[in-house]
Amino acid sequence: MSSSATEGTESFALVVILLIVCCLSVIVNLLILIVIASKPEFRSKTEAFISNMAASDIMLAGIAVPIKLAQTLSLKKDFTGGDGACKLMMFLPMMSIMTSIYTMAAISFDRYFSIVRNKHISKTGMIAVLLKIWIISGAFASPTIYEYSVKVEIEEDNTTETSCGSHGIPENFEKIYATVIVILAYVLPLLMITVNYTQVALFLWKAAKRVGDQQNSAGAVKKHKIRITKMLALISAIFALCWAPFFVLFTIEEVTDTDNTDSFGSWPHTLKVVSIVFSTMSNFVIYITYNSKFRWAFLGMMSGGRCARPDQDTSGNTDETNAAGS
């Protein structure tokens, strides 16, 4: 078998695997939404933010990435989706990514104000925050609608080549946009997340010293707030690691003008898509392994209600998420 045929087979296998992971991601994120919607105990602010991230991941894994993978899987070299599909294929991933990271930032601010300042957002305020996240994400991602379009080029042998990419835009537009996006969608939000969780950790550390080993109500709440804050900080750290390759490769593609469909299947583009796909699964894995309430809720759903969580854990503590999300 020739090397080109082998590479084609490997590329096909990878795309199929990624499509399967996308399907799994959509399923598990739908389960997150179903559990939160069906269980009254999952109605805290934390779960509202988690629902927002799940919705963003569903859009990313269920629509945006499959469009890209379908083009990669196509036997035709030309882009066949049309101008609207071209713009959508580039716009949706960026908006979904920004929605997720801005939700992470909003969670960190909520934890800071709730735990350190003892200030709580109302239901109306929560809805306003979530709407603003989507609006801001859409606004910051909207330049991709201007940047990307379908272009038909005539080759030397008089054949045509149709591609989706950056065509007919000012010379420095891509470099400026890449710089702005990396700062606004990655560096700045993660800096805010780090600062907020550091302040929360310092506050809880001092509070834990005051509480000591007492098992009274206040002590239990403090311990559970520590647990949920650790979980949320872990989600943020994994999110940062998952998206680091994307933003590095995004910048490289923008600067070198290799962000069109002609480059689909190349190792930088493949690595970028892999990081996107597996990032949409990371939150679910963390919820299941780190949050016992989610774990028991999913077990109960999958077992038809036969597997129920005890009202209290072995230490007699109530649910950690209710304590942290209060």
From TrEMBL:
SUPFAM superfamilies: Family A G protein-coupled receptor-like
Membrane recorded as keyword: yes
Domain of life: Eukaryota
Subcellular location as annotated: Membrane
Pfam families per UniProt: 7tm_1
Domain G-protein coupled receptors family 1 profile as annotated: residue spans: 28-287
GO molecular function: G protein-coupled receptor activity
InterPro entries xrefs: GPCR_Rhodpsn (IPR000276), GPCR_Rhodpsn_7TM (IPR017452)
Membrane topology annotation: Multi-pass membrane protein
Keyword Transmembrane set for record: yes
Transmembrane segments: 12-37, 49-70, 90-113, 125-146, 176-205, 232-252, 272-290
Keywords: G-protein coupled receptor, Membrane, Receptor, Transducer, Transmembrane, Transmembrane helix
Annotated Gene3D superfamilies: Rhodopsin 7-helix transmembrane proteins
Cellular component GO terms held in the UniProt record: plasma membrane
Family statement: Belongs to the G-protein coupled receptor 1 family.
PANTHER family associated with the record: G-PROTEIN COUPLED RECEPTORS FAMILY 1 PROFILE DOMAIN-CONTAINING PROTEIN, LEUCOKININ RECEPTOR-RELATED
UniProt name for this protein: Orphan G-protein coupled receptor 63
Organism: Platynereis dumerilii
Organism lineage: Eukaryota, Metazoa, Spiralia, Lophotrochozoa, Annelida
